[in-house]
From TrEMBL:
InterPro entries in the record: G6P_DH, G6P_DH_AS, G6P_DH_C, G6P_DH_NAD-bd, NAD(P)-bd_dom_sf
Source species of the chain: Pontimonas salivibrio
Similarity comment text for this entry: Belongs to the glucose-6-phosphate dehydrogenase family.
GO cellular component, one term: cytosol
Gene it is expressed from: zwf
Pfam families xref list: G6PD_C, G6PD_N
SUPFAM superfamilies registered for this protein in UniProt: Glyceraldehyde-3-phosphate dehydrogenase-like, C-terminal domain, NAD(P)-binding Rossmann-fold domains
Function: Catalyzes the oxidation of glucose 6-phosphate to 6-phosphogluconolactone.
Protein name (record): Glucose-6-phosphate 1-dehydrogenase
Length: 506
């Protein structure tokens, strides 16, 4: 029988249980809902973390009945859920599945939605608590939130809460991010707006906080006295694929650096928060982003590229300009790298190098904290640079874990040293499987707990860092080409060579 934490009053997961509520998914027929959101909901249900009356309402243009929607959900769970399909779990979930046919612009669908949510409150005990997941283009946020307001579905009432969840991109620059925020906060309170960055739900990202603040051995050396530089990488082997319509005109910097990588930088560089509560963590992240020095000279502090056609993994692959749906004159970058500095006492003079790209050597996301060389007077291998610097590498994906690189004596009669690694992997150290990022994030929304969700101040600070680089690139020519399977354009190597450093090979 599946273990149920609800039956064990000593189980610490009781504090993590979601209260009564309903989740409305706009854009429920899209890939995100089908491959990520619905499977995450099922996995939460399978873990006993959802209220027995929890309900899901899909909203879209399809002429589906509730029964058809339930079958679509079943197929999604079978194909993409982490947990094995359990008929009893699914039947409990099925009882709260509803579908509302409607457009985003016409009020009739929202009137029907109000009726359905009212019915769920009475038959399922959802308590009129509603979370709205806007899995739709940002341009449609204003009209959907306006219709929710008109239908009386946006304002907290009678002790019931209303929350809205939005996916990146949060605008295309600081100005549009502010405009988007105004549209959301005109209807919902700031603390009721949850901006999803799914990277922040990954176990290893959360482990950054535990690694730093639950251990006494790292924090004393987590500063400019000992750290030479930090490299934050998110690399993909694939091209744009089916995302061409979204990606062209957005590019690598807007798609990844503005949100994922700058959030990783903030978590890496932040001071210890007073608590792990949302407000305390957010304050420390905002301090870091506010302390990032303005990029005064983008040509020497940034690099951009665009992948060419060629061979990768033994197969011929198209260049970016030859991908389906891409304008042949597109100047959108598929590779972006930045050199940043955090002007705080802890990090003064320590460069942070951020890079992301498609069609690179392998799929990997990691944070590498590279330490300064030891004096090396006893070991000529160190003095001559034959032994690399110590490094602590937090692997976010695909092999979640932590690696420490350090020098060790080579067995034998002579005193010689070389690099060795000590590795911790989640899959080896824990019997529990890691939940998917969306499981953690959806549960946090339902509980109203938001330490991993960026607020508007963080979003605007991130755009403030990136906007000067984007403006410079707009005035320049096309991005530099690079071959598939490599690690980006030559200008990215020059970015580090100017500082007498090189990129890690993950």
């Amino acid at each position: 029988m599946r273990y149920n934490p609800l039956r064990d009053p000593a189980d610490r997961r009781l504090a993590r249980l979601a209260g009564p509520s309903a989740l409305v998914i706009f854009g429920v027929t899209g890939d995100l809902a089908r491959k990520k959101l619905i499977p995450a909901i099922y996995d939460l249900a399978a873990g006993g973390l959802l209220h027995p009356g929890f309900s899901v309402v899909g909203y879209g243009r399809r002429p589906w009945s509730d029964e058809q929607f339930q079958e679509e959900v079943a197929q999604s769970v079978h194909s993409h859920a982490r947990e094995a399909f359990d008929e009893r779990v699914f039947e409990r979930l099925r009882a709260g599945l509803r579908f509302v046919e409607g457009s985003f612009s016409e009020p009739e669908g929202f009137s029907t939605l109000a009726t359905v949510l009212n019915e769920l409150a009475h038959t399922r005990g959802t308590g009129h608590n509603h979370a709205y997941y806007l899995s739709i283009p940002p341009g449609q946020f204003p009209v959907v939130t306006q219709r929710l307001e008109e239908a009386g579905l946006a304002e907290d009432a009678g002790g019931a809460w209303r929350r809205v969840i939005v996916e990146k991109p949060f605008g295309s620059d600081e100005k549009t991010a502010a405009e988007l925020n105004l549209a959301l906060e005109r209807v919902f309170k700031p603390e009721s707006v949850f901006r999803i960055d799914h990277y922040l739900g990954k176990e290893t990202v959360q482990n950054l906080l535990a690694l730093r603040f639950a251990n006494s051995m790292y924090e004393p050396i987590w500063n400019a006295h000992y750290v030479d530089h930090v490299q934050i990488t998110m690399a993909e082997e694939i091209g744009v694929g089916s995302r061409a319509g979204y990606y062209d005109g957005i590019g690598a910097a807007r798609d990844v650096i503005q949100n994922h990588l700058l959030q990783l930088l903030a978590l890496t560089a932040m001071e210890e928060p007073g608590t792990l509560g949302a407000d305390d963590v957010r304050v420390e992240k905002e301090k870091v982003l506010a302390a990032v020095a303005p990029i005064a000279h983008p040509p020497s502090s940034s690099a951009r590229g665009q992948y060419l056609g060629g061979w990768q993994g033994g197969a011929a692959v198209a260049g970016y300009l030859d991908e389906d749906g891409i304008d042949h004159s597109s100047r959108t970058e598929t590779y972006a790298a930045l050199r940043l500095e955090v002007n705080t006492r802890r990090w003064q003079g320590v460069p942070f190098y951020l890079r992301t790209g498609k069609r690179l050597g392998r799929r990997v996301t990691e944070v590498a904290v590279v330490f300064k060389d030891s004096p090396g007077h006893l070991f000529p291998e160190i003095a001559h640079g034959e032994v690399g610097q110590n490094a602590l590498v937090i692997r976010v994906q695909p092999d979640e874990g932590v690696t420490m690189r350090f020098a060790s004596k080579v067995p034998g009669p002579d005193m010689q040293v070389r690099n060795v690694t000590m590795d911790f992997g989640y899959g080896h150290a824990f019997t529990e499987t890691s939940p998917e990022a969306y499981e953690r994030l959806i549960l946090d929304v339902l509980r109203g707990d938001a330490p991993l969700f960026p607020r508007q101040r963080e979003v605007e600070l991130s755009w403030h860092i990136l906007d000067p680089v984007l403006a410079h690139w707009e005035e320049q020519g096309t991005p530099e080409g690079y071959l598939p399977g490599t690690w980006g354009p030559a200008s990215a190597d020059q970015l580090l060579l100017r500082d007498n450093r090189v990129w890690r090979r993950p």
